[in-house]
Amino acid sequence: MKLCAGTCTYEIGGRCVISLSEPLLKYRSVKELKETLLHELIHAYLFVTNNCKDRSAHGPEFIFHMNRINMKTGLNITIYHSFINEVNFYRTNIWRCNGPCRLEAPYYGFVKRSINRAPGPNDSWWNLHLSKCGGKFTKISDSDKTRNSTVFNKQISNSYASKEETQKTNIDLSSDSDVEIIQIVEISD
């Protein structure tokens, strides 16, 4: 997972699985890790108590619990994460269209992804692109397997954190040695 900080999936039999994205969370503060986990735990609570299985539901019940927890803890659980720099860091597979859309804002014919999948019929915007532009996409950049995490850590730290916020999680999320209260079922990268 490189676009979503966490997910909560309701499975048959009443089991909820919370998955956290190590690539997006490993350079964030402990506070932000807690906020992400609590966000997903609200989904799990609603799945179990309200039979609400819509993962994208951030309705009144979700907002009620989010605000209640924020007031009691001083945390800042939100509906969506703002880890823009981390998400963009992993968007290393880049395609560019050779049609007229390459001259139009806001994308100028570029498609950037974390996964190596060319633009095509599986994209919701594909048919509109075919009818309005008709151009073909060519890959112009591949994933960089040798990213320098020290440089990345510095870039991310400089872009969002104050001195108080620079305490990074650096928790090995694949082990439960740092987790006392919960058991992490799945970690995705």
TrEMBL record:
<dbReference type="GO" id="GO:0006974">
    <property type="term" value="P:DNA damage response"/>
</dbReference>
<dbReference type="InterPro" id="IPR055220">
    <property type="entry name" value="SPRTN_ZBD"/>
</dbReference>
<dbReference type="Pfam" id="PF22934">
    <property type="entry name" value="SPRTN_ZBD"/>
</dbReference>
<dbReference type="GO" id="GO:0003697">
    <property type="term" value="F:single-stranded DNA binding"/>
</dbReference>
<dbReference type="InterPro" id="IPR044245">
    <property type="entry name" value="Spartan"/>
</dbReference>
<feature type="domain" description="SprT-like">
    <location>
        <begin position="1"/>
        <end position="140"/>
    </location>
</feature>
<dbReference type="GO" id="GO:0031593">
    <property type="term" value="F:polyubiquitin modification-dependent protein binding"/>
</dbReference>
<dbReference type="InterPro" id="IPR006640">
    <property type="entry name" value="SprT-like_domain"/>
</dbReference>
<protein>
    <recommendedName>
        <fullName>SprT-like domain-containing protein</fullName>
    </recommendedName>
</protein>
<dbReference type="GO" id="GO:0005634">
    <property type="term" value="C:nucleus"/>
</dbReference>
<dbReference type="Pfam" id="PF10263">
    <property type="entry name" value="SprT-like"/>
</dbReference>
<keyword id="KW-0539">Nucleus</keyword>
<dbReference type="GO" id="GO:0004222">
    <property type="term" value="F:metalloendopeptidase activity"/>
</dbReference>
